[in-house]
Specification:
The structure holds 2 protein chains of 2 kinds. Helix content of chain A is about 80%, strand content about 0%. Chain A is an all-alpha fold. By secondary structure, chain B is an alpha/beta fold. Classes of the chains: A mainly alpha, B alpha/beta. At the A-B interface, helix 1 and helix 5 of A face helix 3, strand 6 and helix 4 of B.
């Protein structure tokens, strides 16, 4: 119970601080919107004849990819926030209180989840005039799945940050890990266009399962196996990563 | 080349633990605390930050940890504040075992670190409410505590502005307010006045005394002599991870009986460099003199520990001139904590 209370406490405090800095929130939106406007038209041409007939169809393929890209890469940046809070003594100040350690880390992570979910909402709304149509239930399930994607990548970033303890190394690792993982998740170009060996490698990438599940949801195939499979893969991966980062946090900082 | 003034080699710091357990007026009892930091990489050497630290702090006193940078002050403080797990030794705070039940220790302690630990975009009020909530208080009570702290620490004028707009002194006051929001009985302050201008410094001293007058026990680290001397009721002097002396500042200074005469030997060398030969000759001349109890070389000066400066200075002058050493300056003063440190470690605090 205390963990839940403290997680909520840290989450609401961190969210309020973040909301006091709208410039940062606005800036994080710039990149996804640019991709949305500039990249989706290419996809319509490239995927013509593979079930993509209209802009609406192209966005149904592209928006889920953008969600995963944003969740994955955006989440990986969370480690920077953790390092700067550690350096500023904010974490120490909290750790001298009886606040739950798990809540301290999880509350921060959930603040980032909320921020990226907000971005996803803006992207969804921005894609509507271009012809994106999703039914509400599918959308709600998509957001839930996206939350797991974000939490997974945040936890990985926290764990790396706690291990290297240094912004430069974190940056290098984020780029080396983030780029291939996002490409192997088919975020820009669906993996159906990829050679077989790439598809086989992607089987080991939890983010690829998430992309598949999200694409199924966005094209209205709620009952497709990809949806529940993606859900299970993400739940397991996310559980492991969150557990790992919490363990490291409790070990490294206390 | 130097002989030390006569001092007991090591003060009795903490009696053995059986005796300590019965002292109910002791709020902090530490013995044998150790912490070694292992750096990453195979060739990196382990750093023994704290080697064997023990002391006792009585209820309602301001207890200072004085030592140069890197002496182990902050590490000791962070161990007591439950932030760093000791490698060895034990400590009780308010009767609670630090290693076994850190969670219970956190209820009774407050901590103000050297760096602020606040968000630039938050307001003082937001930070205070959040801090009280982290101590388990409900929302309404947290808001009351925050309002009370804003009055007590005189933060009202800027309490709802962003922290990034505060001056150094205002930030420090907020840090204090955050540290005591839950009304702890023991307060840990890490270098509370480092980097503050003199007026802010004087103000923080007043705040520290006020905490003590309200019944709190204050444990602070400092590398300022005057802070240890005039703010602290008792101090421990720490060097290279070991405690070298403990007592009230006046008792410690009294151990260095007599006066300190400083003989300046610089200036005459053309390059303005320390003339090592001259320094050595002066020390050779003065060390055997019967009225000189101890000699220490500090930069281009010699510190002589004598019973009475008034009678010693003419003798010192005569002895130096006889040996053909011309001092550039000579002055006398009462012993300071720096002399105590020098006597115990052979180095000054500035080293």
């Amino acid at each position: 119970m205390k963990v839940l209370r403290d997680t909520w406490l840290i989450f609401s405090f961190e969210t309020r601080i973040m909301a006091r800095n709208p410039t940062v929130v606005a800036l994080t939106l710039a990149q996804p919107i640019t991709f949305l406007v500039l990249f989706a038209p290419f996809l319509k041409v490239a995927m013509a004849g593979r079930g993509v007939e209209s802009y609406g169809d192209a966005y149904a393929v592209y928006v889920p990819g953008l969600f995963v890209a944003m969740g994955l890469l955006g989440g990986l940046y969370a480690g920077y926030g953790l390092l700067s809070s550690l350096r500023a003594g904010i974490i120490d100040r909290c750790r001298v209180t009886p606040v739950s350690r798990t809540g301290l880390l999880l509350g921060r992570a959930l603040m980032h989840v909320a921020l990226l979910e907000f971005q996803a909402t803006v992207i969804t709304i921005a894609a509507l005039p271009f012809g994106l149509r999703v039914n509400l239930l599918d959308l709600v399930v998509s957001y839930a799945l996206l939350s797991l994607v974000i939490l997974l990548s945040i936890s990985i970033s926290y764990a790396i940050a706690l291990l290297v303890r240094n912004e430069n190394s974190l940056g290098v690792l984020i780029n080396t890990v983030g780029q291939p993982v996002s490409l192997l998740a088919g975020v820009l170009i669906p993996l159906t266009l990829a050679p077989l060996w790439v598809q086989n490698v992607a089987l080991w990438n939890p983010f690829a399962w998430a992309t598949d599940a999200l694409r199924a949801l966005f094209t209205g195939h709620f009952t497709a196996p990809a949806v529940w499979q993606g859900g299970i893969v993400m739940l397991v991966a996310c559980g492991l990563a969150v557990g790992w980062s919490i363990r490291l946090f409790n070990r490294e900082v206390s | 080349m130097s002989t030390r003034p006569t001092l007991s080699a090591r003060d009795p710091v903490v009696p053995d633990r059986a005796a300590v357990g019965e002292r109910r007026d002791l709020v902090i009892e530490a013995s044998g605390l150790r912490k070694t930091y292992r750096k990453r990489g195979r060739k990196a050497k382990a750093v023994e930050a704290v080697r064997d630290v023990g002391f006792a702090v009585r209820a309602g006193e301001i207890f200072g940890f004085l030592g140069p940078n890197g002496a182990g002050k902050s590490t000791t403080l962070r161990m007591l504040a439950t932030l760093v797990r000791p490698d060895g030794g034990s400590a009780r705070i308010g009767g609670v075992d630090l290693v076994r039940s850190p969670a219970r220790v956190r209820d009774v302690i407050g901590f103000v670190a050297q760096s602020s630990g606040t968000y630039d975009d938050a307001s003082a009020r937001q930070e205070l409410v959040a801090q009280a909530r982290m101590h388990g208080r409900g929302k309404a009570e947290a808001e009351q505590l925050a309002a009370a702290a804003i009055t007590t620490f005189d933060l009202a004028e800027f309490a709802d502005r962003r922290v990034r707009t505060y001056s150094g002194g205002q930030r420090r006051r907020l840090d204090f307010a955050l540290g005591v929001i839950h009304r702890p009985s023991v307060m840990f302050l890490d270098e509370p006045t480092a980097g503050l201008d003199p007026p802010s410094r004087a103000r923080m001293w007043r705040e520290v005394r006020r905490l003590r007058d309200n019944g709190m026990t204050v444990f602070l680290t400092t590398h300022y002599l005057d802070e240890a001397d005039s703010l602290c009721d008792r101090i421990s002097i720490i060097d290279r991870g070991l405690i070298v002396a403990e007592g009230t500042p006046s008792d410690l200074k009294r151990e260095i009986s007599g006066d300190v005469v400083t003989v300046g030997l610089a200036a005459l060398d053309e390059a303005g460099q320390v003339d090592a030969e001259k320094l050595r000759r002066a020390a050779d001349v003065l060390t055997p003199q019967p009225y000189v109890r101890g000699v220490e070389a500090v930069d281009a000066t010699l510190r002589l520990y004598v019973d009475g400066a008034a009678t010693a200075i003419p003798l010192i002058m005569a002895a130096l001139l006889r040996a053909g050493v011309e001092p550039s300056a000579i002055e006398s003063r009462r012993p300071s904590l720096d002399d105590v440190f020098l006597a115990k470690t052979g180095r000054t605090l500035d080293d």
